[in-house]
């Protein structure tokens, strides 16, 4: 297997890591490169994209190559090696219950994958195909055969079993009727691939030309038609908005990755604004805000740490302190949901730096912003704060933010010293 090659790109809020040889590594492991990229994203708590044309995976933020290799080794252990013989001779497929099943060619072990892992959800929605790629949207094997081909296969099977093959069985005919019925129930997204006459039946051609047609004018029928028209209009409007966003992104020099980040940030901001408008009190506002963020996290497969990042990017501006104080309870719930508190606090410090860099007028308010997080137990690890402040940053922004934070750090150290002296006096 080739070693993973990572490439750091972008700067500021546009940082991203490209797994240059994701496809090559995937081929060596007999797994799609998309699976490896998605696994790394889940493990690192970030968002992934995949460029099929280049065979490259993308992750938000900067992640060093050794870390990517470590996650790749973990992916191999969990999703490539056989659980019994520990050999990379497994194939992967979905059973009728849509469970991911591994089949080891070396020892014959047949077992189900860990379906609680987030990668399992992605695989179920994008199952592997026989050629080593994936079926986007969860296509099912065998759906490409025509009705005639399926009927011929059934007849051949009947002949091999010695049964009468002169005509399809009643069960086969009934199944064909069900398939005919299913063929007419096609999603709107697939209608563009169908000929206009596909859904016409033979009986339609024999209809009486003199038959009178009428339109249902009842209130219910009118309401249904209006509903359909509104739905169609919303789809057209959404498509036009998407095209407009792409044009604006191209003008601003943003790639698809940056456009997706902006979209999620706007969704987070809209969810909190909606909670503010619809809530009658603070308790309901928090509840609605949490539900809104959970829906966004589920839609984009985000972790609580990701939501913190999008909150900083999409919600906070020059009035950051006011906005933070208005959302304290919500942020505390989000913080409580993070599995690694120390990692979260380090991440918050990085976000504070990025926020001050994006909104320069907040530089002088850096001590107040840090004290807000400290007072509300979102940055309560003093060792983490001291280590961050003492670290010599290579970037001009990092040095400036640390210098601006000095009054807060000095106050924190003095308060810590006074506390230590009081404890010493009590012991004596």
UniProtKB/TrEMBL annotation:
GO terms for biological process: formation of cytoplasmic translation initiation complex. It holds the Pfam family W2. InterPro entries: ARM-type_fold, IF2/IF5, Transl_init_fac_IF2/IF5_dom, Transl_init_fac_IF2/IF5_N, Transl_init_fac_IF2/IF5_Zn-bd, W2_domain. Residues 240-285 form a coiled coil. The keyword GTP-binding applies. GO terms for cellular component: cytosol. Residues 129-192 are annotated as: Disordered. Residues 172-183 have a biased composition (Acidic residues). GO terms for molecular function: eukaryotic initiation factor eIF2 binding; GDP-dissociation inhibitor activity; GTP binding; translation initiation factor activity. It comes from the Eukaryota. Residues 249-422 form the W2 domain. PROSITE patterns: W2. Keywords: Coiled coil, GTP-binding, Initiation factor, Nucleotide-binding, Protein biosynthesis. Belongs to the eIF-2-beta/eIF-5 family. PANTHER family: EUKARYOTIC TRANSLATION INITIATION FACTOR, EUKARYOTIC TRANSLATION INITIATION FACTOR 5. This is W2 domain-containing protein. It comes from Favella ehrenbergii.
